[in-house]
Amino acid sequence: MSVIDVHTHVFPRISRAEARLLAGAGEPWLREHGDGTGMMMSGDDAYRPVHDALWDAERRVAAMDAHGVDVQAVSSTPLLFGYGAAPEAAAEWCELVNSRILEHCAQAPGRLLPICQVPLQDPEAACRIASDAAAAGHRGVHLGNHIGPRDLDDEGVLAFLRHCDSLGLPVLVHPWDMLGGERMTHHMLPWLVGMPAETQLSVLGMILSGAFERLPDSLRLCFCHGGGSFAFLLGRADNAWHNRDLVRADSPHPPSAYVRRFHVDSAVFDPRALRLLVDVMGADRVMLGSDFPFPLGEQRPGTVIRECPGLDDAERELLLGGNAARFFARGQED
What is the pTM of this model? Predict the structure, then answer.
């Protein structure tokens, strides 16, 4: 059995000059220090210190070997999305990022699965770039969970998701640009509170808006970070659906009826939380996700799965790799 980590990130070597493609929209680039460390930059501003497993394929694979991970699905760091740029610039930017991800993963074929990004602010361009990326060898698409005020139930986004299904291209949804504003400027609260809330918002938004009713059952969709607070608060959402017509106005079924329509990763960091997640979603809907190589990720990927109470060997194998192998299988419907 292969151990497959579906939630890992790369920040390819992108220069300050190349980042000017996103002038006025973040201008993300990588500043290396030459000692195995670096800084993710946003224009002239330091964004976050990082280390070379984020951009060096050899160091990445060495870490995988040390952690017993056979395969990583490699997607861009969300700072690279470029959703705030004009569509033409965003399309050119995504083509650059996608080519760098392919180069990174080509250094360890069979170990690293490249996942592309698209200019989701322009659904037509996003469809074109996803098609090109799939033809070039990308194995999935990585999306942020919203584009400004537009959520995943936006008609343009739904058209893009239907296009991904037609390509047989799985979709990973990652929270970003977190809510909370000035109330969460300290102690990394946007990551600790905002990320789970953003993911819960996206999952419930798709359910209650009726978005899943307008998407094919065969779409392979995964929400990162364990689906946020969705599993823990599903009872609250079901109760609201049954008792308030405002909640159920656009959704013909209660939220719990849709847990078979998507996957989540295992990035919940506590065996008890993972046990609840598996109970809610089913053992065939949860995949190993570590958020490698960031400090807030699981430092030894798969540990929480291996320590989760009540899982049998067959279920552990599904979570560690079996589900992901099916999720990323070429041309296979879920």
Answer: 0.95
